[in-house]
Every structure is written in structure tokens, then in C-alpha cells.
Amino acid sequence: MQGVTAADETDNSPQNSSPGQVAGTVPDLLTVGRVSVDLYPHQQGPMRDVTSLQKSIGGTATNVAVATARLGHSVSLVTKVGDDAFGDDIRNALSARFGVDSRFVATHPDLPTPLAFAELNPVEEPNIIFYRYPSAPDIDLRLEDVVNTPVESATIFWVPASRFSAEPSRSTVTAMLERRDTKRHTVFDLDWRPHFWESEAAAHTVINPMLSLFTTVIGNRDECRVAVGSDDPETAADRLLEIGLEAAIIKMGGDGVLVATADGDRQQVKPFPVEVVCGLGAGDAFGGAFCHGLIEGWSMADAVRYGNAAGAIVAGRLLCADDMPYVNEIDEFLAQRQDQTGD
Fold this sequence. Notes:
Blueprint: E1 3-6, E2 29-32, E3 36-41, E4 52-58, H1 60-70, E5 75-82, H2 85-97, E6 105-108, E7 115-119, E8 127-131, H3 143-146, E9 156-160, H4 169-180, E10 186-189, H5 200-210, E11 216-220, H6 221-228, H7 233-242, E12 247-251, E13 257-261, E14 266-269, H8 282-295, H9 300-315, H10 327-341
Parallel strand pairs: 1-4, 2-5, 2-9, 3-7, 5-6, 9-10, 10-11, 11-12
Antiparallel strand pairs: 3-4, 7-8, 12-13, 13-14
């Protein structure tokens, strides 16, 4: 192998800088979940043909945290790393490079920090090769790790479904949700990752009862099938709203995003087609930009449109966290599309 390069060795200085997080302040976004050191190949195809890799950090919650911070908001991430060089790398990257509050990044004394390798085979839906053995520190998240988190007061609390795949994370995050008490903008990212579950049926048994603890659910067709038993967007939206949710956001790939709200509004927000370089980070970029819209008080549909633009930008880039866009980039992208299409 020719080498591994770190993303932070390149000039990635922002035109709109992130504010970071001041200790003791209430964050705009609090998110809890997976973290890893991510390695992205410079070559497409199977891993056996890869000769060089680029290092970043990732994990659904981590990427959403970075994406939201990039758009000018205060963000705190709740997770756990190993007591090793990779854990130190993650904590430093969060605070120094991305402006994400790392106060609630705990350290496990024994379990190693996870690694995740992206295999661009194909680029649209890369294979992720996880190294989380024998388990990962973020699954060993315990009540004592989250006791001081501002879950009750954060503007948005964002939870990916993988947090419920095993104990003690399942009980810990459930306790955080009970403290939150379905405050507005409690968001469930259905984030279906088969690697974390014994089966789809087992995932449904755990995920479905959790839906009532949230106010907004985001998922694609497959994730909705796991959560509510239907991959039809309209049916899935109906079932989610019947639970008492404020909004159901159903991603439909090339057909855009269905936005259904409890007040009866239902509309399809068009996507922005792009040439894909790596399909991994688009959904998390969408999440960060969607959070931006919620924090700014936009309608759900406007927040989704901004999310679609951010997702399209990142789909045309290689990395996840390091390639999340800034406000000026999304605004310029939307302005160009407006000029081109008139929409």
C-alpha cells in the first residue's frame, strides 16, 4: 500500500467558520451515537485494488454533528472512544478542526476505538468494512457517561437507530429520551445498518416501540420497512403520524423526499441530481442541513430542500466529515440550480 494521508493535512479552511462550543452553554444540537476513524480509498473498486487511503472521522451522529457545526451552530456530541491514539485523534478533530463540543466524549479503558474502511464498490453505495471488535466503546455508553448532558434543553436531540442495537447503549439512550420527554425537535434517524442487528425482524421489535419517544422521524424506504413494516412512502408516513409524531420525512432516492406533517401538509421535495463520487456522506449532510433549517425556524419542507442541496454537494465529494459544506457553498449551489432550472 502506497500510504495513508490525513484529511487535515490539506487546506480545508472554511469561508464560513464554525463557532465551536463554550462549556456550560446549551447547544443548538445534541446528538448521540457512533464514532470511528474512517479511511477512504483513492481508488474505486474492491479493497484488493486500493493502494492509498485518506483518513477522516465518521459515524452517523458524528457526521451530523460536524455538518451542523459547519453551518454555524453550537453542537455537542455524546459518544465514547478508546484509550488510544485513534481516540485522541477523534477528540482533537472534533474540537480543533470541526468546532464540535467534545465534553461528552467519554473514554473506555479497554475497548479500542473503531475503524471503518469505505470500499467504493460501487461508488453510489460503498461497502463499509467495520472494525468494532470485540465491541465498540460507543455501544458501552452508560448512564454515568451522560448524566450531565443537556438533553432536556438542547434545541434538537438527534438519535440514530443503531443506538438501540445493544446494551448498555439501548438503556442509556432510552433514559436520555425519557429526560427529554418528547420535547419538540426530538429526531429519530432510522439509520438502518444491518451490521448492528441480528436480523431485520429483531431490529423492528426494538425500533418500533421507540418511535413514540420522538417528534420527527427520518428514514428511507428500507428503513421505514424495518420501523413500521412498509416501504411505501405514503403508507409509512401514515403509520408514523398515527403514532403521534409531528413530522415524517421519507427519503425516496431519485424521487426526492416526502414531507408529511401532523397538521395535514404533505409534499414531495425534489432532489438535486449530481455525479456521485462517494455515496456515504450524503444522508448525514442532509441531516446537518435539515437541523440548520429547524434551528432557524424554517418549515419542514424548506429544511428538507436545504438538506437535499447539502446531500448533493457531499455526494460529489470523497469524504464525510471533512467534506461537509458551509452555508455559502449550499447557498451558491441553490442559486446555481435556480438559475439553471428556474425552480
